[in-house]
């Protein structure tokens, strides 16, 4: 009895971690919009450069989602999530440290790449963690809500 209860708690704890990853990945898509005026003023970027800061992340994110899912199928979901998180975190640090337009656009593109590796593998992990249909529906509802909350 205690073993199954602990197993259930661990599954929901893993879902919490997966949802945190998803929320941060989705928040990254929208949070730069708030910083654009400061970026333009502090780094003296023109309008075209500001547009590329937004586009680079979304473009690589959308382009590599299928690659991230397939990589999770071929290798391990867990390992691809870790690779994606590493790419995302290193590129986020690079975004904070660069002071030129090209460097920021490239770092933003790598943020999108990292997110595109984590999201499909994290979503597939939910199906594995929750094989029962009624708990899977609850888990995906929580997943969807955290993504929406992250973007807001």
UniProtKB/TrEMBL annotation:
UniProt key word Transmembrane: yes
Subcellular localization: Membrane
MF terms (GO), sorted A to Z: transmembrane transporter activity
Domain of life: Eukaryota
Keyword list, A-Z: Membrane, Transmembrane, Transmembrane helix, Transport
Record Pfam families: MFS_1
Official protein name in the record: Major facilitator superfamily (MFS) profile domain-containing protein
Protein species of origin: Aureobasidium subglaciale (strain EXF-2481) (Aureobasidium pullulans var. subglaciale)
């Amino acid at each position: 009895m205690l073993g199954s209860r602990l197993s259930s708690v661990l599954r929901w704890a893993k879902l919490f971690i997966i949802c945190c990853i998803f929320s941060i990945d989705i928040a990254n898509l929208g949070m730069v919009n708030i910083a654009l005026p400061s970026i333009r003023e502090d780094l003296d970027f023109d309008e075209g450069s500001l547009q590329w800061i937004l586009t680079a992340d979304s473009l690589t994110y959308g382009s590599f989602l299928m690659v991230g899912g397939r990589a999770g199928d071929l290798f391990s979901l867990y390992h691809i999530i870790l690779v994606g998180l590493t790419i995302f975190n290193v590129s986020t640090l690079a975004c904070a440290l660069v002071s030129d337009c090209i460097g920021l656009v490239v770092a933003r593109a790598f943020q999108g790449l990292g997110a595109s590796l984590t999201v499909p593998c994290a979503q597939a992990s939910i199906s594995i963690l929750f094989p029962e249909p009624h708990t899977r529906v609850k888990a995906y509802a929580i997943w969807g809500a955290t993504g929406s909350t992250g973007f807001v």
